[in-house]
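Final report, section 2: Outcomes. Of the targets proposed, Thiamine pyrophosphate enzyme central domain-containing protein is the one most frequently requested by collaborating groups, and we therefore present its record in full.
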Amino acid sequence: MEKAASLLSNPGKTVILAGRGTHGAREELITFAQKLKAPIVLTLPGKGAIPDDHPYCLGGLGLLGTKPAYYAMREAETLVMIGTSFPFIGFLPHHARTIHIDSNPAQIGKRTPVDVGLAGDALYTLQQLNKRLSERQEDEFLCRHQQEMKDWLAEMKAQGEEDRTPLRPQTVPVALQEVLADDAVLPCDV
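The predicted structure is given below as tokens.
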């Protein structure tokens, strides 16, 4: 825990990759991101850990991900993987210092080398790390990627509102958002 806190105390471009294991740890995850001034990228099973429209969320990573998430990962100097064994290693930064938190020790370092592995529940582990971290002041990396995400969302919405044939994939969720309740859940298959 101390080694992870020490590594995270260094300034730099940090990205959090949140997986299924972060469900139930929303407040701790957001506090962690705020302290590090780090954007949160979601795995597909991690979707819903924080709201898609949260300012720290850059969306998903991978073939179904967003450009801002992809570019943030390319620049990351430190990667914190939480509750995930993300299988698409081509989307992970190759030269970043990596901390991996997982409740299953066998998953730690399974797909990518790690500098620090923490075997533990995401909620408890993030609580302990949050106690040990001071809030960073430098936020240029975070702010730049937040703006990229705003631009990306605006572009997706504009493409979804275009009246054209054939329809763009963005058209369906844009249209559904206008008629569904805010708490509607839409299952998808890929």
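The first helix runs from residue 2 to 9.
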